[in-house]
Specification:
Blueprint (H helix, E strand, L loop, with lengths): L2 E16 L4 E17 L3 E5 L6 H8 L7 E6 L4 E2 L5 H8 L2 E4 L13 H11 L5 H14 L16 H13 L5 E5 L7 H18 L2 E6 L11 E6 L2 E7 H6 L4 H8 L6 H5 L31 H5 L12 E2 L13
Parallel strand pairs: 3-8, 3-9, 6-7, 7-8
Antiparallel strand pairs: 1-2, 1-4, 4-5, 9-10, 10-11
Helix pairs in contact: 3-4, 3-5, 4-5, 5-6
Bound molecules: iron/sulfur cluster.
Length: 332
């Protein structure tokens, strides 16, 4: 299948500065050598606890922040977004759009819904006025809102409806790839499923590809084709979704899966919840060896001594664990 995005060894280091001269004394390795592919028409779930670097990865892909190193190759042309200036990036930017986490703060409260959705069209001078209005009305319909909503303001809408507005805005320029950064985590559980279903429908309707960022595996269980699990700025396991959920190979993945609730109470009762001790370590001074070893229930001596990075195999699956071939971990 054609690859719409190839990310290679992406890094984002934030300098730590101190003193009157603001001398750099270290760096926070928020993203530390991340590589993955997104195929056209698929949804890649990018998952990990808060602070693991998944949102920073998404922002680097969009060049909302500049990466420290690496390649972001987009489309058949394999344009490297990291090498383009902001001006050179402009014609490509419309092909990749982002949906943000917080539908309350991501919409300008002084703009009407129509103007919010139309703004990318005005900025890119894509359509004339009447074509723009037609496009906005069609987009409102696509996301389940009414034509009359065009003249209303964001405060008149619920959280779920605001996220629909954000989705319509992201679709305005007819992108090929959408990065959805925790698009349902600020919403009530009852509304989350509606938005996830909407995103699935839109994927089919507009032949989209998604990178879906989430902090737990339950949200992306039914919509991801493949999953990449991030821990402390690195991908520690990647595979097709079925393998990740049923046959995890990395202890961190196993812990995330153990938190996914099962609809059948009998099955749920028989499952063991793995509670990780402590928080994600400080990315400015990660633990030696495997970065997960202070929290890993399977750690042995080598884990604290030898660092390891995930090397993608040709089948695009991989596990960064010294004990990957000997552990038998619990899936769903
Ligand atoms: Fe756990 Fe060791 Fe594997 Fe790291 S390398 S995940 S510490 S078993």
């Amino acid at each position: 299948m054609e690859k719409i995005l190839q990310v290679r060894n992406l890094k984002k280091y934030f300098p730590i500065r101190r003193g009157i001269l603001q001398k750099q004394i270290g760096s926070v390795k928020a993203v530390d050598g991340v590589s993955f592919d997104v195929h056209r028409g698929e949804t890649l779930g990018l998952v990990g606890e808060s602070g693991c670097g998944k949102t920073t990865t998404g922002r680097c892909l969009m060049r909302l922040i500049d990466p420290t190193d690496g390649e972001v190759l987009f489309g058949e042309e394999q344009i490297d977004f990291c090498k383009l200036t902001q001006v050179e990036l402009k014609p490509y930017r419309r092909r990749m759009q982002m949906i943000f986490q917080d539908p309350y703060s991501s919409l300008n409260p002084r703009m009407t819904v129509g103007d919010i959705i139309a703004e990318p069209l005005y900025v890119n001078q894509v359509l004339n006025k009447s074509e723009t209005e037609d496009r906005v009305v069609n987009l409102l319909d696509s996301v389940g809102l009414q034509k009359d909503d065009i003249r209303r303001y964001p405060h008149a809408f619920s959280g779920g409806q605001r996220q629909r507005i954000g989705i319509a805005r992201a679709l305005a320029l007819q992108p090929e790839l959408i990065i959805a950064d925790e698009p349902v985590s600020a919403l009530d559980v009852s509304i989350q499923a509606q938005i996830l279903n909407l995103l699935e429908e839109l994927k089919e309707k507009f032949q989209l590809s998604y990178i879906f960022i989430a902090h737990d595996l339950s949200v992306i269980e039914h919509i991801s084709d493949r999953i990449a699990v991030m821990y402390l700025g690195r991908i520690v396991e990647t595979n097709v979704a079925h393998e990740i959920y049923h046959y995890p190979k990395h202890p961190y993945t196993e812990a995330l899966i153990s938190a996914v609730p099962m609809p059948d109470p009998k099955i749920q009762k028989g499952r063991k919840r793995i509670r990780l001790e402590g928080d994600v370590p400080d990315p400015s001074s990660p633990p030696l060896g495997c970065h997960f070893h202070p929290r890993c229930g399977y750690a042995v001596d080598v884990c604290a001594q030898e660092d390891l990075r995930l090397e993608l195999t040709t089948s695009e699956s991989g596990v960064a664990c010294h004990r990957r071939d000997e552990l038998s971990l619990q899936g769903i």
